[in-house]
């Protein structure tokens, strides 16, 4: 007998809902259409804690705010996402965008409930405007506690040497123009940007900043409108923000910093309906930061803008490009900035914009009715073919109703490059448009206008080169570079900005060489050999035009063609090689500036390593290379591995030592009797290299498990040494200068087990489409049955589901208790 089993629609709905929820959980999406969402900072998402730092809540009046707590000098809180410095957004009225541009700069409000620290530091790390050896730029805001006030140092960090540090602190506090700030509410803001320098203000009163309540300073050598987060696995890692406290001697209570807001996002903690837990309400749309300085668009090409969308509390902000080329019909109708839907708005307004799907082209070409710009829209050596309007819809989530903004590209372009168009039936509407230009002329050299007779106008850059050489203490050696100063003042292009030029450097020393396709902040020359170097710089503009010069006669006058125009001569980058090798035979000798510098081999130097990545018991550890400057043929190195018995040291001396203290104690700058390794040598056990061990000897059983490889700098930390420190000792000897060997130490902290750090893995984000398709296939049959009955849910946002998962885990923990 066959039994007929009936499954109710409700049961199918529950199965389908569970399947969809599982799919959403896998993809990181959220089944929600709310614009706002709540966020919980866990210490391993957005802001990351280390060294006994924690994220807490602090009561301020009747409100609750996010707070960072620091238990020791080694405690840090880091922000590991892109951080916006400068942008434009639509001004808001009653929370709604108005379409009126509003310039934005980085701004954050913090506070200190108690001044139980000596200094408190916020490190801002970013890409560079002019390249240096470090490849990244560090700028600091340091707060110095004194009495019931704080004093501020902006820019450079305080010195590490205790005496120099104390002197620097006293200099800040006792300066004639020193400003004592109240610690309860302090705002740090950027106020201007030019030539790689941000102006910075730290104040108690943002509405009325004066010299009595505000400290002014500068962040130098900052490249661009945002700091791009680069993982620590990269050789040039960038962590945009690092918060840390430096404790006064004998201080035991943890230091608390309250975070009120950052870049318009409030960090107030609020409750939501149905929950007593306090969370951050993410109600702020993302912002758009450009990676280039746009002046015009290239006519005949697709729109290609380098930009980044940044949100303080969203991992996957989205953007959509919209544009149109202005026509006469559109101009007559007016309302040229309209981005809405006329039917939905109940109006007859027309939206002229074309939405560009991901991967599609956005060609800038003329049509039959394209509006023809006037002669006033033509600039020096370029012709405006048409006018273009571009805006981006940016949103902080994948949900249909996330926090969003419409950002017009023209807001970022200098006014002198924009075209003004009057429109509408009464011709009384005024709009700004971007010019689409045909540019056939490249960059040219720009000598100083005030050059004296007999000078070529580039003496100023030669002086900058000599100053940079001295400042960098550049010397010849394997892998050594001389980092050139900015060439911005000595080259120009009719359309392309300095930041968007592509550079080539040709040089000749004992050998000739070149570096091509360099960004503006990558100008450097490898200096392996000592002696005289001569070099020239070449630039290609955005339209890939060659450089040019204006031909001159023997008296220095411009040569004119038959039309009375100056004769323009274009030349290729490769022509600089022949100029340097044989100037007498090159026509460029009178038109291309050539610079020079001399470097010597200054002997062997070693830079002390800084903090290293943590090691884990049983997992092979690969140490970073030591930073050695010298000619490899002229020096030898020897590496030794030691394990430091932390427990025995503490039991014998009654002292404890942190990782940061160990690094400081191993500094090569310390005197012989002050160096920690030499002073406490008995607590360091030498680990022989595996290749030096004999299986028949007793030492083999003791040390073979470490598998220490002194050539590869790898070893395996052992269980017996859990929570100990390892130290790699380098001894380097210079055979050219017969001096004493240079000794340097690298300290490595080891933990018993590897704790996973959540929030860094982007695998799910990178494979959302595949996972969604797989999940949909699993519920396809049920979905077909229920399609008529159950309304499909919208695709959710990865951040919403991540937050929901935090809540579920928190609830499970409470139940298990």
From TrEMBL:
Transmembrane segments: 768-790
Alphabetic keyword roster: Membrane, Signal, Transmembrane, Transmembrane helix
Keyword Signal tagged: yes
Span of the signal peptide: 1-24
Keyword set includes Transmembrane helix: yes
The protein's name: Uncharacterized protein
Organism whose genome encodes this protein: Candidatus Coproplasma excrementigallinarum
């Amino acid at each position: 007998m066959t039994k007929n089993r009936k499954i109710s629609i409700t049961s199918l709905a529950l199965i389908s809902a569970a399947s969809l929820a599982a799919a959403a959980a896998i993809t990181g999406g959220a089944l929600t259409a709310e614009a706002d969402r709540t966020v919980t900072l866990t210490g391993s998402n957005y802001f990351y804690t280390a060294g006994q730092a924690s994220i807490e809540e602090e009561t301020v009046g009747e409100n609750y705010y996010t707070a960072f707590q620091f238990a020791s000098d080694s405690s840090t809180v880091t922000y590991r996402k892109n951080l916006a410095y400068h942008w434009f957004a639509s001004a808001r009225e009653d929370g709604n965008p108005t379409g009126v541009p509003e310039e934005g700069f980085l701004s954050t409000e913090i506070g200190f409930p108690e001044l139980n620290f000596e200094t408190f530091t916020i490190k801002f790390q970013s890409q560079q405007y002019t390249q240096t050896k470090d490849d990244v730029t560090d700028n600091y805001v340091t707060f110095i506690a004194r009495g019931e006030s704080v004093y501020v140092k902006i820019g450079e960090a305080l010195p590490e040497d205790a005496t120099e540090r104390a002197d620097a602190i006293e200099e800040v506090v006792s300066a004639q123009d020193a400003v004592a700030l109240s610690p309860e509410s302090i705002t740090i803001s950027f106020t201007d940007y030019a030539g790689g320098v941000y102006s910075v203000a730290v104040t108690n009163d943002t509405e009325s900043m004066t010299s009595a309540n505000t400290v002014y300073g500068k962040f130098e050598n900052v490249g661009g409108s945002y700091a791009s987060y680069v993982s620590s696995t990269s050789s040039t890692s960038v962590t945009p923000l690092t918060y840390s406290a430096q404790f006064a001697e004998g201080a035991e209570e943890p230091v608390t910093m309250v975070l009120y807001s950052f870049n318009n996002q409030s960090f107030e903690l609020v409750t939501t309906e149905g929950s007593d837990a306090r969370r951050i309400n993410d109600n702020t749309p993302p912002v758009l930061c450009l990676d280039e300085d746009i002046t015009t668009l290239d006519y005949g090409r697709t729109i290609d803008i380098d930009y980044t969308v940044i949100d303080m509390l969203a991992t996957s902000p989205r953007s959509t490009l919209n544009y149109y080329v202005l026509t006469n019909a559109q101009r007559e109708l007016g309302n040229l900035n309209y981005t809405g839907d006329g039917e939905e708005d109940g109006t007859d307004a027309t939206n002229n914009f074309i939405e560009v799907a991901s991967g599609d082209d956005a060609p800038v070409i003329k049509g039959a009715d394209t509006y023809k710009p006037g002669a006033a829209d033509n600039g020096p050596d370029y012709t405006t073919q048409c006018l273009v309007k571009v805006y981006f819809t940016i949103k902080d989530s994948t949900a249909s109703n996330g926090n969003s903004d419409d950002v017009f590209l023209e807001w970022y372009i200098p006014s002198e490059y924009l075209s003004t168009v009057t429109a509408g039936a009464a011709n009384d509407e005024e709009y700004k448009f971007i010019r689409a230009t045909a540019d056939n002329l490249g960059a040219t050299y720009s000598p100083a206008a005030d050059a004296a007779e007999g000078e070529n106008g580039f003496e100023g850059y030669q002086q900058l080169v000599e100053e940079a050489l001295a400042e960098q203490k550049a010397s010849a050696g394997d892998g050594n570079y001389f980092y050139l100063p900015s060439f911005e003042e000595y080259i120009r292009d009719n359309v392309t900005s300095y930041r968007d030029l592509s550079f080539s450097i040709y040089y000749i020393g004992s050998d000739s060489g070149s570096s091509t396709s360099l960004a503006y902040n990558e100008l450097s020359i490898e200096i392996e050999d000592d002696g005289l170097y001569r070099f020239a710089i070449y630039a290609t503009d955005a339209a890939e035009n060659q450089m040019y010069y204006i031909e001159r006669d023997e008296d220095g006058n411009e040569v004119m063609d038959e039309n009375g125009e100056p004769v323009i001569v274009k030349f290729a980058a490769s022509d600089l090689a022949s100029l340097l090798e044989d100037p007498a035979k090159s026509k460029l000798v009178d038109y291309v500036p050539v610079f020079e510098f001399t470097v010597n081999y200054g002997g062997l130097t070693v830079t002390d390593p800084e903090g290293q990545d943590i090691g884990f018991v049983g997992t092979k550890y690969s140490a970073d290379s030591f930073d050695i400057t010298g000619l490899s043929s002229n020096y030898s190195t020897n590496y030794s591995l030691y394990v430091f018995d932390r427990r025995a040291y503490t039991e014998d001396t009654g002292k404890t030592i942190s990782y940061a203290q160990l690094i400081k104690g191993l500094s090569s700058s310390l005197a012989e009797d002050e160096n920690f390794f030499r002073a406490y040598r008995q607590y360091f056990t030498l680990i022989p290299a595996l290749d030096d061990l004999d299986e028949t000897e007793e030492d083999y059983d003791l040390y073979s498990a470490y598998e220490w490889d002194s050539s590869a700098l790898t070893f395996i930390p052992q269980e017996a040494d859990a929570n100990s420190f390892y130290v790699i000792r380098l001894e380097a000897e210079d055979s050219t200068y017969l001096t004493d060997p240079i000794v340097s130490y690298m300290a490595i902290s080891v933990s018993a087990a590897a704790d996973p750090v959540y929030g860094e893995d982007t695998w799910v984000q990178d494979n959302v489409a595949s996972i969604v398709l797989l999940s949909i296939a699993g519920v396809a049959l049920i979905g077909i049955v229920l399609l008529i009955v159950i309304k499909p849910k919208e695709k959710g946002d990865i951040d919403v589901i991540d937050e929901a998962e935090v809540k579920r885990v928190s609830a499970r923990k409470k139940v298990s208790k």
